[in-house]
Design a protein that fits this description.
Elements lengths: L1 H15 L4 H21 L1 E3 L9 E2 L4 E3 L10 E2 L3 E6 L2 E5 L1
Parallel strand pairs: 1-3, 2-4, 3-5
Antiparallel strand pairs: 5-6
Helix pairs in contact: 1-2
């Protein structure tokens, strides 16, 4: 299920940057799918600043929209990433 959520997130980010009416309709479609599935999985992650290779092993993850996640990051258990000024705090 998390893999499906990641697919929806990537499509949402892709169509957000595209121009045209059809692209905007697909953006709205995928954002609805992503948000509905994210609510079921308890995921609150903005995918705009995530490098390739993110791997989520468990549910209940919250990542602030201003946070930047590096390449091949792995999230285990209940994780909250919050960006305070220029310091990143990881709360488990």
């Amino acid at each position: 299920m998390i893999g499906i959520w990641q697919y929806y997130s990537r499509k949402t980010d892709y169509y957000k940057q595209k121009a045209g009416v059809f692209a905007k309709l697909l953006y709205l479609f995928f954002i609805c799918l992503r948000n509905r599935l994210g609510e079921k999985l308890c995921l609150e992650i903005s995918t705009e600043n995530i490098a390739p290779g993110l791997l989520i092993y468990h549910y209940n993850n919250v990542v602030n929209g201003g946070s930047v996640i590096g390449r091949n990051c792995r999230l285990h258990g209940i994780i909250v990433l919050v960006m305070l000024d220029l310091m990143i705090c990881v709360v488990q």
